Amino acid sequence: MNTAARSLCALALLLAASHFVTGRELAPAAAEAWSGAELALLKSLHIGALAAQAPDPSNAYEGSPAAAALGKKIFFDPRFSANGRVSCASCHDPGRQFQDGRPLGVGIATGLRRTMPIAAGSASPWQFWDGRKDSVWSQALGPLEDAREHSGNRVAYARLLSRHYRQEYEAVFHALPDAAALADNASPLGTPAEKAAWARLTETQRSEVSRAFANMGKAIAAYEKTLQHGPSRLDGYIAATLAQPGGGEGMLAASEKRGLRLFIGKAQCITCHAGPLLTDQHFHNTGVPPRDRSNPDRGRAAAIETVMKDEFNCLGPYSDARRRDCAELEFIAADDPHMLGAFKTPSLRNAALRPPYMHAGQIATLEDVIRHSARAPSAAVGHNERRPMPLSEQEVADLAAFLGTLNGEIRELK
């Protein structure tokens, strides 16, 4: 956690502590008043506080409009799947905040976890619920070869690029390999037949196909970087409140304002759901019950080795980064016991629009998510880092109402 995040957490905890000292809610006459410390927290949540997303040094093409245009076409093209019916947009549906509304993602088959939304994804150094990928372009490649998702293979993808996108691809990247000279289906991660076909390719052929595959991911990432959150009602309220005392009067309902006070105070939600995206981009064990109690998901702890060995990581042969650009990977905490059963903190923007919740859709409603967090039950694996936080049903309802103020348009920037 960086210095700014630690300071924000300390401020939030101080405000929460002050609630317990007073032992009472604010009087109705003072309900619109915010202290200087509270205003600082509100400002930190405003979408305007979101820093410009730094370029990804491992993807030299993410700022290219031509790469983004190609990536958008691939993103919506179902031919990039084993059955010709699954595209990236099948799970990342623009009409559903670029997710699918299902407890578990469904591609060729049913997946193991919930589909994550992708807007502003490049703001995080780690991708997926467990952080098993360290860039957006590398993340885009995972589903393409996953048997439950697209279930495709690298040579087939190179053929598709050659048949349908050669001119656009070669205008951005290098020349495509001669896929016609290769086996129809070959991949290091595919079926036994595909693995055998891959082994028969020369080292140069494998490298050329993998480079084309990596460039697909870089093009998709260039498109995904154009997807950003627009302002929500909360942003409007914060802007008006910061402009002048009482400037936001009437912009939020009473329940929503009470929920906001709880969020930055007593309930301590802002400790993890901090900043303009309302996430610390880190991993936490909050005792979420596993879908399969006989085989609980180990979360981040199981993903660290995966990302370290990934040929498409920041240090890999297809990255455009220098070694010194890959500090997150170089200094990863490989033996942190707190990562057992830990999952990534999701952004709360548009959360009210995308039930069910948690990493495998285990909880149906926002109210039940809040109740779960307040109870802080023992974790099935690892240790729940939260402590019980008694909340009344009115407070649960107020927090859920506040979360509804975070809904906003997802914009495609040009």
From TrEMBL:
<dbReference type="InterPro" id="IPR026259">
    <property type="entry name" value="MauG/Cytc_peroxidase"/>
</dbReference>
<feature type="domain" description="Cytochrome c">
    <location>
        <begin position="254"/>
        <end position="407"/>
    </location>
</feature>
<feature type="domain" description="Cytochrome c">
    <location>
        <begin position="66"/>
        <end position="177"/>
    </location>
</feature>
<keyword id="KW-0574">Periplasm</keyword>
<dbReference type="InterPro" id="IPR004852">
    <property type="entry name" value="Di-haem_cyt_c_peroxidsae"/>
</dbReference>
<feature type="signal peptide">
    <location>
        <begin position="1"/>
        <end position="23"/>
    </location>
</feature>
<dbReference type="InterPro" id="IPR036909">
    <property type="entry name" value="Cyt_c-like_dom_sf"/>
</dbReference>
<keyword id="KW-0479">Metal-binding</keyword>
<dbReference type="InterPro" id="IPR009056">
    <property type="entry name" value="Cyt_c-like_dom"/>
</dbReference>
<keyword id="KW-0575">Peroxidase</keyword>
<protein>
    <submittedName>
        <fullName>Cytochrome-c peroxidase</fullName>
    </submittedName>
</protein>
<dbReference type="GO" id="GO:0004601">
    <property type="term" value="F:peroxidase activity"/>
</dbReference>
<keyword id="KW-0560">Oxidoreductase</keyword>
<dbReference type="InterPro" id="IPR051395">
    <property type="entry name" value="Cytochrome_c_Peroxidase/MauG"/>
</dbReference>
<keyword id="KW-0349">Heme</keyword>
<dbReference type="Pfam" id="PF03150">
    <property type="entry name" value="CCP_MauG"/>
</dbReference>
<keyword id="KW-0732">Signal</keyword>
<keyword id="KW-0408">Iron</keyword>
